[in-house]
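---------- Forwarded message ----------

FYI, see the AzlD domain-containing protein record below. Original note from H. follows.
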Amino acid sequence: MTAALDSLSVWGLIFVIGAGIFAVRLSFIHVYTERSEIPPSIEKALKFVPIAIIAAIVFPDVIVIDGPLRGVGPIFDVLVSSRTIAAVIGVLVAYRTRNMLATVVLGMITLWTFQIFIG
């Protein structure tokens, strides 16, 4: 038997979780504003945060298990999906040109073209 949460309990839970997250972030800011500079090891690690965030957002959407060729095999489905092909083209364009607009435009054109032909 499960008990339903009432509105006050839900708002209390949201407040407690929010306060906890705020406290963790504030403690990090407080610790490093007391010092004059961030240690080099942490500064070096923070350079990889934007790359990790973009990868965490994009990667699950690129790897498609239920592709149009489901009967062939899971590895083949991932390699032949229109999202994977567009992602590879986008990575190549980004590496070659270092231009974000060209990467997005060519990646989307590739995605839409392959979605028409592959599905």
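H. also flagged this: The chain is about 75% helix and 0% strand.
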